[in-house]
Specification:
- The chain has helices spanning 4-12, 18-40, 43-62, 67-110, 203-209, 242-261, and strands spanning 112-113, 121-127, 136-138, 143-152, 157-164, 168-176, 179-187, 197-199, 221-226, 229-230, 232-235, 238-241.
- The longest helix has 44 residues, at 67-110.
- Helix 2 (18-40) crosses helix 4 (67-110), helix 2 crosses helix 6 (242-261) and helix 3 packs across helix 4 (67-110).
- It is of the alpha+beta class and 265 residues long.
- It is elongated.
- The protein has two domains: 4-111 and 238-261, no CATH class; 115-229, Immunoglobulin-like (Sandwich).
- The two termini are 35 Å apart.
- The chain has six helices and twelve strands.
Length: 265
């Protein structure tokens, strides 16, 4: 509970509507983006660069019948655009990096839906070929098998179909190569922090998709997957991926705050 993200989660996760959560987070992030851009950019130079671009565009319309003037003005537009991009690049970088980190963490909560009680889901284990027939799955009380294990030698994978009797957070155990490896499963009707996969290596993949520690390097198991369903959020008769909806709403909020605060972007 010590990190800023966990404090934000504690404040927001009592709201079990993903739509309301995305709207609130988008508005807050839109405001932060605009304020951060304003503090890290040279507002006077950006204002001047935008005014010069507007003047050049107006000149193209006024002198459209004079080809030499138009061509010269297009050159000035290109130079002015480059100047504006240079002025905006670093402030945008200061905004984009923390937003990217935030999205990765929020996706743990909003990217997929927890398992529903009495609805079957899949547990999949990818292992070294020589250990494929040794892989076993042990379930805690509250989870049970709904079909025999299926071995897929072409993918070095074993798949089980499992069902949960009630809501809760469960730890399943995978036995392979004399080791016992755990994986968390969340069964809940609300918004919860989920980890769809636990991986052995693949540092970037683990950072992007897994919310659990790495599997031991010496383990024959490469990955343990749980088939959480992707989450769609319905707004204006459209089913949105939460990241797309977040970007749309945060951009709208950003433009509104830009006008209210008089910040040049």
């Amino acid at each position: 509970m010590g990190s800023p993200l966990n404090l934000l989660a504690a404040a927001l996760w009592g709201i079990n509507s993903p739509l309301i959560l995305v709207i609130l987070i988008s508005v807050v992030v839109g405001l932060i983006m605009v304020v951060l851009f304003g503090y890290t950019s040279d507002q006077k130079k950006i204002h001047l660069a935008k005014d010069q671009l507007k003047a050049h565009l107006l000149a193209v319309r006024l002198y459209q019948d004079q080809l030499p003037v138009v061509m010269k003005t297009y050159g000035r537009i290109l130079l002015g655009t480059g100047r504006y991009i240079r002025l905006a690049f670093m402030p945008l970088l200061y905004v984009i990096i923390p937003i990217t980190l935030l999205i990765v963490q929020l996706d743990r909560y909003l990217g997929a839906m927890p398992i529903e009680p009495r609805r079957p889901f899949l547990v999949s284990v990818k292992s070294a070929p020589e250990a494929l027939n040794e892989v076993k799955l042990e379930l805690p009380e509250g989870l049970s098998f709904s079909a025999p294990a299926v071995h897929i030698p072409a993918e070095n994978r074993v798949v089980w179909r499992v069902v949960a009797a009630k809501n809760g957070t469960y730890n399943i155990n995978i036995g392979a190569g004399g080791q016992s490896l755990s994986k968390q499963i969340v069964v809940s009707p609300g918004v919860e922090r989920l980890s769809p996969v636990r991986l052995r290596d693949h540092l970037l993949d683990r950072w992007l998709t897994s919310g659990e520690s790495a599997l031991p390097a010496a383990s024959p198991v490469e990955s343990i997957d749980v088939s959480y369903a992707p989450r769609d959020i319905r707004l204006a008769w459209i089913d949105w991926n939460w990241i797309v909806l977040f970007f749309v709403l945060s951009m709208i909020a950003g433009f509104i705050f830009k006008e209210l605060l008089g910040i040049e972007i």
